[in-house]
Amino acid sequence: MTVQSVDTKNCDYCSGNGYFQLVLGGTETCASCGGTGKKVEK
């Protein structure tokens, strides 16, 4: 049995949430990962 490892690192800016919790309420999509929560390799 072979186990394949998928490299899924969380985004450094939003900690893998895909959004930021705003102080005044509501959320904002993380611009770094586009809301996916995954680190984008450039």
Automatic annotation (TrEMBL):
<dbReference type="Pfam" id="PF17302">
    <property type="entry name" value="DUF5351"/>
</dbReference>
<dbReference type="InterPro" id="IPR036410">
    <property type="entry name" value="HSP_DnaJ_Cys-rich_dom_sf"/>
</dbReference>
<dbReference type="InterPro" id="IPR035272">
    <property type="entry name" value="DUF5351"/>
</dbReference>
<protein>
    <submittedName>
        <fullName>YuiA family protein</fullName>
    </submittedName>
</protein>
